[in-house]
Fold these 2 entries.
Entry 1:
Amino acid sequence: MFDDFFIRALIAGIGVAFVTGPLGCFVVWRRLSYFGDTLAHSALLGVTIAYSFELNIAVAVFIISSVIALILIQLQKKTNLPGDALLGLLAHSSLAVGLVVIGFLTFIRFDIMGLLFGDILAVTIDDLLIIWIGGGLILLVLKLIWKPLFASTVNYELAEAEGLNPDRAKAIFTILMAAIIAISIKMVGLLLITGMLIIPAAMARNISDNPKKMIIFSIIGGLLSVIIGLFSSLEFNSPSGPSIITASLILFILSLLKIKQSIHLKN
Amino acid sequence: MSRYKMSLDKNILVKLKDAGFRQNNKWLVKGVSLVVEKGKIVTLIGPNGSGKSTTAKIALGIYKKIDGEVEKYTNKVGYVPQKVSIDWTLPLRVSDFMVLTENIKDDAINEALSLTGVEHLKNKNLGNLSGGEFQRVLLARAISKKPELLVLDEPVQGVDFTGEIALYELIKKISEELNCGILLISHDLHTVMSATDHVVCLNGHVCCSGSPIDVAKNKEYKVLFGEQASQTLSIYEHRHDHVHSHEGDIKKN
């Protein structure tokens, strides 16, 4: 039937989709897609460090992404540059530095395409453990900070005034973003992780009228994208990340039909 | 003032002592001292940009780097901000919004929504409400928590005239029923005069403060609000006596 690697990729992808679903909704609601992109770009630097010091890739990426997030927060406080300029600065400079470092590490053969676009062949049993345990932890923490995070997403001042500590929730959420990028980099690749976060959530927005529904549809959309994407990757020998994202794009386009329908009904 | 404070300390919910807030080296407000106590309504009045909302945010702890002191003795707070914009990217029904900061039982949600006259909107999307409807939902959300301290920043803006009167009556009733302290920001001088225990008149600093009658007689108040306010005062004094005795009658019955 299936080769063993394919089952592993499927289990890994399903684990990732369970986590990107709810996190992706927050990325859309809080307008953090470019922020997610920046963390993902910096992941390349994390990968080079993992190879240099023989660390686990997910751990190294998690550390570097968290550091980049902290640097970003500091730069926002200390400079007068707009947020998107700072994000661009960090995204491209960390990507560039990562590529330069790869150039120096001539003794290691890098599968750059795999890093950028995901590689299902590369998923090991260890990766599965990291995805499912790490993913479980991310969801648990997200559940714990749900109230302050969601309330401050709707209105920061309401959350702050009514004693929910939104700043702490925001800081923790930033770390969760670094964590999801760390655990999903092998599956989707660093250039496409943000797509995995945003596209199912955007699809879910089109067909939901309340936040819980949007999260559930976002998870379902992510799961379908992973399953359809991976099967077509196997079938057409296409890279896994782009196949998954293309599948999610098709789901998004289908969800537009629902919007058209509801507009039609209103008229 | 200090004797007063000692004897009623338990009742104090929030206290500002010479508080001020600066943004980009510009004082938004400074030197504000006020106390909100259980069961009392304190109203902030003043022209646009006089620091009313800023004072409310200082009292709420939203602004942290402040001058002076703010002491808050309760965490059960209900807040109606002056401006709330709900993003379209977030699908949110009224019922979702009601439990935003605290999980509230369905009965309490229904009760609060019907008090402000918007029970029928419970399953509507927040983005589809009119300004007045949204304002009523905001107020319902704040009172449904049964807070000890209510901070209402122009809570009836955009509400129709009859609704406005009803909502101000509701606010007064709530302060009595819940015995909660209310910090109110209002443009409506009539309401301020008839429903308030203590008025603080702001213009970047505290212009004058005291009971509604004291403030209305104050020269600075007259300078700030002009002839019309004086007229309002005379109408008010007349109306006040009437309303007061009328209420007394009802209480006797």
Note: DSSP finds nine helices and nine strands in chain B.
Entry 2:
Amino acid sequence: MSNNRVSRRQFLGYTLTGVGGFMAAGMLMPMVRFAVDPILQQKEGGDFVLTDQAVADITEEPVRVDFSYEQTDAWYVSEVTNSAWVYKEGDKLIALSPVCKHLGCTVNWAGDPEQPTQFFCPCHAGRYEKNGQNIAGTPPLGPLDEYEVQEQDGFVAIGAVRQNTLV
Amino acid sequence: MHFIGKEMDQYLNQQDYVDTAVVPLLQLDLSANGMKPSAGASEYLQTLTALLEKQFKGRILLLPPVSYAKIANRQRIADELSEELKQTKFKHVFYLTTDSEWRTIDSLKNVLWLPAIPIEDMDQSFKKSVMEDQLRQVLPLFTKEWSHHS
């Protein structure tokens, strides 16, 4: 007992270290929380949107599938309906964006009666192969974008748009 | 394209491709009995033109609706609008309206008159299919005009 006596000097040292530690922690903790905040943020819009198109009905012929989600533009929230051209390649689902890479019109599958196996843009006669590859000599300069797509309970769910991975 | 600042930059760079203007003509009727049909017609016309813009984004410039009072002189509006549009490089101008009085104005070309359908009470998916039917009737008029004069 007598060996462990705490001197006044030691006692003050421990006390000040302890209080100082709490103060330092009180300052550092919010800073750390701010620093890691971007990692903890929930991502908006990265989710898949369920459509009412059954996967079983999808064939190798592209069909138009509509999907809606809410979009916030400044203070204005609106429901946006987009569509995708969905088809099966083997067992794999493929969803292409219908937005023409030229100036943003909506392309249609077999829209040109003379080219029944291509996407056709009615604005300036742009054409794309079934996999979205733009046909040289027509106005578009790149392939159609692709949507992430998955099956949820037998229905098609459409996710984020990304660059075409098929061509 | 919409008539907004951001898309005007793109329009000014692509004037050769965007050769068609679409002008919705909208009659305002603010009398007690006319207000609701007038609002319904406005909703219908703006939904239809928005769909049209989505389909033909790269070739048409959708102007904001030109709204006028019931008693407005249609002939004067027609003359002023076509005078204003003369300064532009548009090769085709379409006017869309639900107001039947425009049918008597001969000086405007390509006035598409459509009877307004009250869509306010329809549920979302039914409204969509009705509007797409309407759109399908309008689209060929555009493609026909383009294939004639290009």
Note: DSSP finds one helix and nine strands in chain A.
